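dumping this here so i dont lose it
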């Protein structure tokens, strides 16, 4: 399976939004997606429920899922800035250009498993 960084670069090149100046942001996004993937793997391995009961009897989201959600939220912000969302693409390419039909937002969400 391709690394997150490879998938990000491929998607950006398909959209013609890649610029070398984005390399550091691409690294951060890839790292966020890697951390999300690790958190989801650890959650799956734990076999625990999504919601856990704390010692004070209140309920909370499992820590691994909470970490994965935080990573996804931050990753979505980076994806927007890199032109990997519809609104981000418009910012980079301008309002007159529309996203290519072969690379829609839903396709990107599936590739990066976000949302």
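and the seq i came up w/
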């Amino acid at each position: 399976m391709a690394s997150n960084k490879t998938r990000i670069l491929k998607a950006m090149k398909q959209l013609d939004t890649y610029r070398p100046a984005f390399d550091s942001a691409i690294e951060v996004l890839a790292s966020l997606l890697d951390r999300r993937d690790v958190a989801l793997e650890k959650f799956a391995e734990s076999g625990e429920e999504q919601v856990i009961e704390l010692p004070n009897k209140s309920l909370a989201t499992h820590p691994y899922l909470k970490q994965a959600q935080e990573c996804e939220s931050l990753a979505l912000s980076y994806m927007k800035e890199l032109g990997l969302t519809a609104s981000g693409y418009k910012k980079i390419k301008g309002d007159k250009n529309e996203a290519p039909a072969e690379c829609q937002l839903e396709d990107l969400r599936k590739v990066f498993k976000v949302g």
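The chain has five helices and two strands.
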